[in-house]
Amino acid sequence: MDEKQTNTIIVGASAAGLACAACLNKSGIPYLLLEQYSYVAHAWRNHYDRLHLNTEKGSSSLPYLSFPADSPNFVSRDEVVLYLEKYARTFDIKPLFNQEVTSVRQTGRWWTVTTAKLQYKAENIIIATGNNRRPCTPYWEGMEDFTGSIIHSSSYKNGKSYIGKKVLVVGFGNSSCEISICLHEHGAFPVLSVKDPVNVIPRGNGGPLTALANCFAWVAKKAPVLVDSLTAPFLRWRFGDITKVGLRKLPYGPNVQIVKHKRVPLLDIGTMKLINDGVIPVFPGIARFTRDGVQFTNGHEVKFDAVILGTGYSPALNDILPRELKLTNETGSPLNSGTMSACENLYFCGFYTSPLGMLREIGREARKISNAIFKKEVARRSGILNH
What we know:
Blueprint: E1 3-11, H1 15-27, E2 31-34, H2 42-45, H3 77-90, E3 101-107, E4 110-115, E5 119-127, E6 134-135, E7 149-152, E8 166-170, H4 174-185, E9 189-193, E10 200-202, H5 207-222, H6 224-239, H7 254-259, E11 266-268, H8 271-276, E12 282-283, E13 286-289, E14 293-296, E15 301-303, E16 306-309, E17 313-314, E18 346-348, H9 358-386
Parallel strand pairs: 1-2, 1-5, 5-18, 7-16, 8-9, 8-16, 9-12, 10-11
Antiparallel strand pairs: 3-4, 4-5, 6-17, 13-14, 14-15
Helix pairs in contact: 1-9, 5-6
C-alpha cells in the first residue's frame, strides 16, 4: 500500500477541518486534509432545508473570513455551504477527496492513518469529523409492523410530502423542534414525543441578552451552576412552567447540561409558542409501535401517518480509534476537544458543545491547536539548530 508523509493530518473537510487547515496554512505547517466524500461540508449539505444557524453571523464565522455583509443575521444552511466552499478557495485548501479513514494507529512518535487506498503518516493528527458522523436509530417493539413511514431526521428535507398528515416527531432537540415547526408550516399535524426532562433557552436575538451571554461564556465553563442560578429567573419569566404543557424540567440548568453532560438544550425559535397554543401536542416516550401508530408510556395509543426520529447522532470514533487508547466514551465521543488528547500529538476539533455556537467554538479550537503544533515545531527546529 502506498504511503504519504507530512507534518499534520486532518481528518474531515467540513467546518472544523477547514478551520484547522486555514490556521495551519497561516503558520506555515505542512498538512494533508482527508475527506470521505467528494466535496467539502458534507454534513451541512445534508441538513434539512429550513435550517439556519442558531447564533448570529457576527459571532459565527471561522478564522480570518467573515460571512458576507449582505447575508442574514441568522445564516441559512445553503449560505453556510457557500461560505465553507469560499473558505476553502480563499485559503487554497485542497482536500484529498474520497479518502474514507478506516483506522488511526500510533507507532512511536508517528501516527498512521489508513484509508481504502492509501496510508498516511504524520507527527500530528487532528480528528475533525464532527458530532454528526452516524445517526442514532433506536428500536421499539412493533416498528417493523408499522404501516406508515419511519425516517431519521438526517433524511428529512422539508414538509412537502407530509401535507395533511399526522406526524410523530421523536425527541426534543433543536432539529426535532424545528422540524415540527416546518411540518406545521407545510400543513402537517406534528406531535412531539419527549421521553426525558429538558431545558429550554431562547435563541439570541442581539442586544443586551446576547452581550450578556457572551460575557458569561467564559464563566459558564468553570462555574455552570452559578450562571444557571443567575439566568433561571429570566427563563421562568420567558417560558413559564413547562410542566403544564407535558414537558419535564431537568433538575439542573442549561449550562450544566452543556458543560457536564455534553447535551444541547433547546434553543427555542418558536416551538414553545406552538406547544403553548396547543398546535403541537406533547406526549411522553414511546412504549411500542402499533400497526397504525404508537402506544406511549402513559398507555395512550395514537394513530400516525409517519414518524421522524430526532434521536441524535454519534461521532462513532470508536470505529477508527483503538479503544485501548481510551480517548472516547462508550458512544465514540472524544473526552476532550480543542487541546491535545491523552495521546501525544493527537487532537480533536469541533466536538465541544457551546451555547454560543459551534462555528465560533470551532474557530477558537482551530487556533489553539494550530498554535500548539506551531510552537512545538519551532521548539523542535531550535533544538536541531542548537546541536
